[in-house]
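Give me the 3D structure for Polyprenyl synthetase family protein.
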Amino acid sequence: MSDAAEAPGMAGDEALKAALAAAASEVDEALDALLPAEEGDERSLFAAMRYACMGGGKKMRAFLVLESARQFGVAPQSALRVAAAVEMLHAYSLVHDDLPAMDNDDLRRGKPTVHRAWDEATAILVGDALQTQAFVVLASPETHSDPAVRAELCLHLALAAGARGMVGGQMLDMMAEKATEPLDEAAVGRLQLLKTGRLIEFSAEAGAILGKAGTHQRQCLGAYGREVGAAFQIADDLLDLTATPEEAGKATGKDAGAGKATLLGLLGPERARAQAARLVDQAVTHLDNFDKRADLLRALASHVIRRKN
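Predicted structure for Polyprenyl synthetase family protein (309 residues):
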């Protein structure tokens, strides 16, 4: 992993930007090595998988894996493999979310969505292949020498991504669009926790799993990830309201028209921003038992609500 986090004399924002950029580059290199080469009769599928994962996106979840692993001295190569696996699974979710049957989006990360660049059937297969490849990476001995650690990574990522996690949250999101009564704040919070928060929570905890950390440290990182995930989703909803498609790298202004259930819609912009700030403050308190090596995690919590894309 990059030494940007250790660079002396850098302001917090500058250090974070440098570390995020370095991590994104390193994770793209890992994805390049871990995703199948564009060869053989399946080359169109492989090309679309790489298109969905590489060369764009914030790689925030991957960054969380790398930084949480750094707290416990995890080997960089192990952390990078887990970070890449998380990015594969996240990319699969975006490819499927963009489909006409879901959010019907034409733009993602500033370029045509997979079903536009190829076709709908290929996009479905790309998502399927990226999801399974993520677990191939986690289950491989190269990720960690201890099979119990590999099994735990697979279990917790599956829980974060499945019917009681990301997929379940997407289902609740679609159901809310058709509901005759709007969801209340608690129901929207649960929807967003499942759809967005669980994967971010896993990303923050993954380094502790790799490092065989104690229960308390794992719980602290998981709680940090939950709060950051909730703040991130509010910020995302605000960007949908205020950012241009060029700034966001995707279509904006769609949530209200689609009847999306969001805290922004319930609270309004001012109260939603205040709620996001409270969540950031809570997230940082969960890092009180970590030393200065966690400063980038502290900075990231604030960054997620100040970002422009």
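The first helix runs from residue 12 to 34. Let me know if you want a second pass.
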